[in-house]
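User: Just a sanity check before I run the rest of the batch. Below are the structure tokens for the first item. I only need the designed sequence back.
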């Protein structure tokens, strides 16, 4: 195929740009940096293979092309939408590589057809199986490669060399090992069966003996329990008697006294829990003062100022040290300078200063006016050329740097997000305003019913229609009523709370928009309806920014070139002044001039050397004076820094040297302590709040305690336990009297008669119960232990019987043997399949090698022809069968390994191989455009010219695009094109495509 035209509707810096590349000549495209060259390269790839993932936004364009059969097509890509049409405008949804190019993907295209400078070095791509299968093997080769991949995957699914592998054969071998181990264990079952029968007989004997003993102990325990039963009656009678005496002690008690007591107890329990929890919080922390954390807080301002100047202080110290070293080096150099000057040849004295010398007089005496005239003549002919800047680059006064532009785009994205969020909130508010407000809910009715139920429960209790259960039910009803009323209140105010939250969030969004508007360079949109215009504005600003950046860069390079030319011109002017002065001084008296200026005796022709050597001394002496002045200034700065630092260090009380590191350490410590103090301030405030809350709880506790003391005094109780007992006895005094009579009657019936009752009562009062109870406890423990032991014996006996029964009818060995046979058969079957796959893979390897060997020599021969044309027969190509070793042979038949190639020769070799592979692909399937991007960087001018001649000839039949950013390469291409009578030349300027001609 050949590209007939490119339409870049919106792609990077290109907008509604078009280009009709040549189909029968080399297309040479020249574009400086930021001119759109890389964007054009990427557009061609995207038209052929589609946009990369996530890189389709804002990109639209189309490309027309003609196939080898003469049919015209056009491919369209509009962001995510893509299709192509034939000349009858019939649309197709498939991708071009899938239907025509035998599965060629973008990676393989860029390996062979699209070449940049970094792609030309090395032949690693020749060892890539995906590349070899499609370029050396071509039709059908990729199918062999795919089949090999499937076979390798199938083999990997059957067997792996790892001992921990989970493949099918590995798992079967593991199962076979487990079966063999189980068979070894099952071989010991006969001996185990005999041991179990003996154990069964022994367990039967132990079980019978233990059962007899357990029955006897239970009979004795029942006799003791009958005696102890009388004690229960006696204990109940004593307790009822004590309750009766307590009820007689209470004569006056309020009707709601117990309810008041319960409320006080509940309230005090809550207060106690709150105080306990609060006291734990108070004990966790003790308040501190700021002076305890930062003793030198008063010097914080001075410390901050000095910390800001630390960089200057450190730099000043470095400068002082460097100047001292420079001064010492200058002193040694100045003393030894005399030895380096042939006309002096003695050490210089630091105390003797150079006198001013009138060199014009010396030059007039040198009698070298002719020489000086010749020097002036040649100096005029060396005048450097200074170009003129045609126009000043446009300046973008708003946004100057890439960082500023990124900030603007970030603010724009954040603003767009805020507008969408604001629109969502307005929509939610409109929806809530349309909802009907609730005043009544089912929870309110349920709450009222529970309140009425609680009132009924309390009324039943005070009217003696029910007992304490009514009070508990009433309290539970009150709690449920409050719970359901809270649910009702939340349902009623749900809309109001939601609206308030949305209004608050809306206010925060408005504040954020205001903050962005103060920093945003343009007017911000107010609603989502203005976003489209805002997007257009941002796109326009983005385009203008990058255009100005490109112009600014180009102007900067031009100005730098002119600055260097002007600098050379100024040097040339200075040289002319010096020569003119020397010519004017040539007529002075030479000897008297040397004596007057204390210069060494020398010949007149050595005047230039004398002046140069004296100038070195004078310049070196001036440099030493400048160093002294600079040292004095730096010492003054260091003294000022040291005084400020000493004041701060003394205020901290720390023992540390006066240097920048100490100040930095103190500043960091101050910063840490400030953060610590800020955290402690919050803790101090919280501690004060806890203390106030504890004071309130103490007041409530004292109030409850006073009310409780009042109730205790009414019944003469010392504590809460005694109060509860007396109140309960007073409330149930009638029932207590009835219980007293009933218990005594029951005890008489248990004893059998009045005499037995009196005797039993008397014996119970003597304390024989303790002996009975100890005996009963001992027997109970013994019975429990014996029962447990008997249960364990019976369980063991049952387990033994079950195991004997299981072993008698166990078919595990038979099943294990059968399973072993099945596993071995499955292993044989899968191993046979694995060996078959291995054999098939080897056959495919040989077939692929034979298939490649048929195509590779043809490609190598063609690459060899290309290399000879590019080097005028100087080199020929040698390539190994696997493509991993490559060499060249010169005209003298001497082989040269890749290690000794020049970079330009290597580029020519690899270019010839790739071009041969590309043309081989085209001859078998379909020719595709070849794209070359700045491949001449390492070529000298002659190598560029020869390669361009070759590409011009090749481009008559094969469509080739050559991109470059070098003006010189473009000039050479135009010269070769004129020589060959072919070539298409295009220039790119900031997204504009200009046709330069053929």
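Assistant: Here's the designed sequence for the first item:
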């Amino acid at each position: 195929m050949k590209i007939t035209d490119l339409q870049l509707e919106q792609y990077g810096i290109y907008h509604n740009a078009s280009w009709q590349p040549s189909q029968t000549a080399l297309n040479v495209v020249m574009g400086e940096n930021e001119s759109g060259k890389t964007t054009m390269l990427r557009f061609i790839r995207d038209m052929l293979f589609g946009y990369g993932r996530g890189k389709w936004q804002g990109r639209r364009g189309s490309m027309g092309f003609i196939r080898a059969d003469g049919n015209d097509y056009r491919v369209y890509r509009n962001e995510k939408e893509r299709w192509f049409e034939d000349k009858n405008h019939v649309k197709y949804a498939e991708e071009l590589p899938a239907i025509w190019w035998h599965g060629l993907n973008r990676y393989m295209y860029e390996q062979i057809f699209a070449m940049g400078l970094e792609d030309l070095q090395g032949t690693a791509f020749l060892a890539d199986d995906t590349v070899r299968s499609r370029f050396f093997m071509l039709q059908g080769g990729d199918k062999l490669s795919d089949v090999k991949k499937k076979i390798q995957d199938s083999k990997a699914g059957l067997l792996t060399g790892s001992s921990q592998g989970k493949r099918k054969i590995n798992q079967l071998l593991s199962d076979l090992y487990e079966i063999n181990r189980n068979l070894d264990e099952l071989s010991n079952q006969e001996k185990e069966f005999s041991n179990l029968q003996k154990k069964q007989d022994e367990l039967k004997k132990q079980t019978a003996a233990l059962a007899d003993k357990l029955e006897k102990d239970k009979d004795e325990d029942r006799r003791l329990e009958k005696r102890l039963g009388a004690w229960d009656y006696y204990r109940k009678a004593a307790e009822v008697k004590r309750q009766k005496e307590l009820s007689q002690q209470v004569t006056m008690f309020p009707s709601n006294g117990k309810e008041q007591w319960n409320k006080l107890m509940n309230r005090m329990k809550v207060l106690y829990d709150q105080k306990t929890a609060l006291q734990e919080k108070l004990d966790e922390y003790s308040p501190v003062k700021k002076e305890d954390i930062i003793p030198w807080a008063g010097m914080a301002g001075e410390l901050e100022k000095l910390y800001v100047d630390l960089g200057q202080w450190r730099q000043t110290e470095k400068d002082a040290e460097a100047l001292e070293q420079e001064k010492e080096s200058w002193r040694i150099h100045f003393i030894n300078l005399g030895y380096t000057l042939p006309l002096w040849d003695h050490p210089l004295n630091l105390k003797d200063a150079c006198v001013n010398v009138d060199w014009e007089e010396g030059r007039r005496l040198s009698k070298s006016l002719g020489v000086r005239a010749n020097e002036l003549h040649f100096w005029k002919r060396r005048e450097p050329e200074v170009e003129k800047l045609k126009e000043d680059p446009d300046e973008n006064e708003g946004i100057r740097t890439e960082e500023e532009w990124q900030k603007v785009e970030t603010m724009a994205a954040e603003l767009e997000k805020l507008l969408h969020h604001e629109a969502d909130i307005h929509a939610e508010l409109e929806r809530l305003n349309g909802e009907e407000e609730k005043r009544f809910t089912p929870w309110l009715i349920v709450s009222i019913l529970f309140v009425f139920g609680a009132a009924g429960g309390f009324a039943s209790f005070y009217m003696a229609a029910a007992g304490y259960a009514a009070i508990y039910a009433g309290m539970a009803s009150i709690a449920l009523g409050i719970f359901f009323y809270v649910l009702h209140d939340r349902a009623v105010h749900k809309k109001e709370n939601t609206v308030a939250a949305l209004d608050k969030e809306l206010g925060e969004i408005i504040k954020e928009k205001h903050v962005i508007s103060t920093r945003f360079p343009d007017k911000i949109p107010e609603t989502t309806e203005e976003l489209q215009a805002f997007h257009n504005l941002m796109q326009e600003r983005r385009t203008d920014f990058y255009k100005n950046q490109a112009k600014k860069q180009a102007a900067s390079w031009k100005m730098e070139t002119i600055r260097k030319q002007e600098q050379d011109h100024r040097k040339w002017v200075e040289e002319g002044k010096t020569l003119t002065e020397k010519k004017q001084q040539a007529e002075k008296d030479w000897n008297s001039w040397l004596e007057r200026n204390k210069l060494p005796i020398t010949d007149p022709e050595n005047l230039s050397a004398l002046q140069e050597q004296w100038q070195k001394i004078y310049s070196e002496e001036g440099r030493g004076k400048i160093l002294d002045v600079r040292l004095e200034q730096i010492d003054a700065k260091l003294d000022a820094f040291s005084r400020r630092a000493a004041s701060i260090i003394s205020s901290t009380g720390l023992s540390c040297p006066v240097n920048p590191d100490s100040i930095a350490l103190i500043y960091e410590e101050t910063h840490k302590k400030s953060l610590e103090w800020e955290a402690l301030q919050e803790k101090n405030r919280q501690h004060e709040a806890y203390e106030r809350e504890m004071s309130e709880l103490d007041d409530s506790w004292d109030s409850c305690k006073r009310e409780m003391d009042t109730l205790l005094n009414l019944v003469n109780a010392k504590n809460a336990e005694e109060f509860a007992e007396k109140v309960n006895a007073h409330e149930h005094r009638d029932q207590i009297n009835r219980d007293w009579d009933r218990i005594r009657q029951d005890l008489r019936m248990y004893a059998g008669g009045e005499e037995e009752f009196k005797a039993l009562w008397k014996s119970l009062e003597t304390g024989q119960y303790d002996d009975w109870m100890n005996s009963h406890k001992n027997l109970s423990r013994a019975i429990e232990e014996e029962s447990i032991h008997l249960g364990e014996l019976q369980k063991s006996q049952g387990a033994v019987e079950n195991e004997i029964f299981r072993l008698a009818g166990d078919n595990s060995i038979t099943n294990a043997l059968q399973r072993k046979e099945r596993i071995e058969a499955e292993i044989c079957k899968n191993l046979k399949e694995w060996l078959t796959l291995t054999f098939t893979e080897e056959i495919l390897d040989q077939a692929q090698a034979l298939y490649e060997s048929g195509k590779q020599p043809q490609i190598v021969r063609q690459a060899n022809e290309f290399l000879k044309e590019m080097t005028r027969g100087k080199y020929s190509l040698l390539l190994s069968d696997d493509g991993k070793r490559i060499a060249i042979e010169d005209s003298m038949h001497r082989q040269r390994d890749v290690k000794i190639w020049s970079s330009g020769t290597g580029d020519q070799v690899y270019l010839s191989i790739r071009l041969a592979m590309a043309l081989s692909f085209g001859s078998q399937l379909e020719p595709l455009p070849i794209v070359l991007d700045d491949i001449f960087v390492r070529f000298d001018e002659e190598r560029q010219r020869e390669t361009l001649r070759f590409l011009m000839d090749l481009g008559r039949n094969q469509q080739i695009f050559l991109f470059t950013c070098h003006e010189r390469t473009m000039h050479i291409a135009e010269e070769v094109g004129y020589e060959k009578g072919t070539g298409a030349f295009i220039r790119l300027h900031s997204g504009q495509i200009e046709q330069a001609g053929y």
